[in-house]
Automatic annotation (TrEMBL):
This is bis(5'-nucleosyl)-tetraphosphatase (symmetrical). It is an enzyme of class 3 (hydrolase). It comes from Leuconostoc citreum (strain KM20). Transmembrane segments: none annotated. Coiled coil: none annotated.
Amino acid sequence: NGTIQTLETRVADKLSDYRFQHSVRVRDYAVKLAHDNGVDEDKAEVAALVHDYAKELSDETFLSVIKAKHLDSDLLNWGNYIWHGVVGAEIIRDELGIEDDEILNAVREHTTGGAEEMTPLSQVLFMADYLEKGRDFPGVETARQITDQSLAAGVRYQIVHTVLRLVKKETPIYPKSITTYNYWLNRGL
Ligand code: DGI
Ligand code: FE
Ligand code: FE
Ligand code: FE
């Protein structure tokens, strides 16, 4: 597909080789998860290819977009790890012309997840970013097996373990990550 080829080239030009390779692996994993879960594979492919498109932009660039677009001023208290998804979605729409709100929301949520508003497409991207073949953290194989059984159980596993890891490192936790944690913990999986 020519559109996907063009998109892939745009992403490759924007990112270091290692992060582009990560994006390609996320694409492969996202298409598989989409297939297994009845999610639109073309949307999953696009969302995955572009999800970290903004990750290597400077803090100054993110700060100027937050101001120009009047995004939530609380964003000013956070950093690249939150901005590249939430603010990155605006940059992806402007630079790549992707207008699909389901795709843009999946990119916005790919780091923190989301609560009841999290669509199956967004769950697929969240899990593919966590599980792509290059990931090798302790527990990744368990996480892959759980996600093969149930996408929602995978989302729960990831958010629990991410919050645990952040607490252990005494790192600040973005409020949306806590909302995601509470929601998926109580879904009775
Ligand atoms: O962009 P990637 O490295 O592929 O992965 P990502 O966007 O899922 O995560 C980016 C980083 O953000 C990762 O090191 C984990 C971290 N992170 C996720 N949620 C939070 C967080 N960091 C803080 N401080 N607070 C959070 O709530
Ligand atoms: Fe990311
Ligand atoms: Fe992620
Ligand atoms: Fe990523």
